Amino acid sequence: MPLPASPLHSFVYLASQSPRRQELLQQLGVRFELLLPRPDEDAEALEAELPGESPDAYVVRVCALKAHAAHARRVAGHHPAAPILVADTTVTVDGAIMGKPADANEAVAMLERLAGREHEVLTALAVVDAEGTLLPSALSRSKVRVANVDRAALQRYAATGEPFGKAGAYGIQGRAAEFIERIEGSYSGIMGLPLFETAALLRVARVEF
Fold first, then answer.
1. 6 pLDDT tier (thresholds 50, 70, 90)
2. Which of the following is catalytic: 40, 88, 94, 103?
3. Which of 37-46, 49-58, 76-85 is least confident?
4. What is the pTM of this model?
5. CA–CA gap between residue 158 and residue 152 (Å, rounded)
6. Are 135 and 205 in contact (CB under 8 A)?
């Protein structure tokens, strides 16, 4: 006789502070609870690049590191067992990884590098199931074409504060949309949580939605 299927989980932990990821999970109808880094955790250290690392390898590795850290956080905090969803997004152009700008000048410099050309947005997903096993990860790859925007417009955009905390110094769901000529791939993936891949992983992890 076949073994009975494991029960569905009524919610998932989301190990991300991103309001966009929270909105996208709500769009899927997924119940979630936040599982954020503790004050003593150095979350930024997990995002350090390795010499010669490709953008694909980087984003998948960082996502897995964040997933393991989130699982350890759940266990240490004695939180109820449930799957944990983790995502990491990076922007890449000319093989270089573009992180989050430290200030307005760096934001403008990043945006000038993207202006008038196409770049890639990579979002990796990882799920740790309720038993603590890291499931095979998923990688969403999208292409974005930015218009040839002048420096003054980019400076005005940077002054809004929107680029901060965002890979590549822009958020497609915000005011930066006026600079985007076209995209190829997943709009939700560019926002930071590709819904098709997310839904597939959550089904594997037996999350109810």
1. confident
2. 88
3. 37-46
4. 0.92
5. 10
6. yes
129 is catalytic: no
What does the pLDDT read at residue 5? 63
pLDDT tens-digit series, residues 72-85: 999 999 999 999 99
In one letter, which amino acid is 75?
Answer: V
The dihedrals phi and psi of 102, each to the nearest 5 degrees, come to -85, -25
Lookup result for tokens 């991103």: 18
CA 36 to chain centre: 14
| Residue 43 reports pLDDT greater than 90 | no
**Residue 139 near residue 56 (C-beta atoms within 8 A):** yes
- Domain spans, the chain: 12-204
CB contact set of 166 (below 8 Å; sequence gap of 6+): 100
**Tokens of residue 103, six digits:** 């200030």
Q: Are 156 and 173 in contact (CB under 8 A)?
A: no
Q: How far is CA 96 from CA 15, 58, 91, in A?
A: 26, 11, 8
Fold of 12-204: Maf protein (3.90.950)
